[in-house]
Design goal:
This protein is an alpha+beta fold. 27% of the residues lie in helices and 9% in strands. A two-stranded parallel ribbon has the order 1-2. It is elongated and about 45 Å long.
Length: 64
């Protein structure tokens, strides 16, 4: 179900949600030093969502 929650301070007058996703593959080797790279990739996808129009889910794509 889609909720339409009013937000008077928003230009769209409702709450929107943008999400950035990075998929970690089970076969990948990761250690504590790599966690910042994983977060950076998800963050990159998040800001791509916001840039591309908000209210969407964007997956990180290393090719781009």
């Amino acid at each position: 179900a889609i909720l339409s929650i009013q937000h008077d301070d928003s230009p769209l007058r409702k709450i929107t949600m943008s999400t950035g996703v990075y998929i970690y593959n089970p076969g990948d080797i990761i250690n504590c030093n790599d966690i910042d790279r994983v977060i950076d990739k998800a963050d990159t996808a998040l800001y791509r969502s916001k840039h591309d129009g908000r209210n969407r889910i964007t997956f990180f794509d290393e090719v781009e």
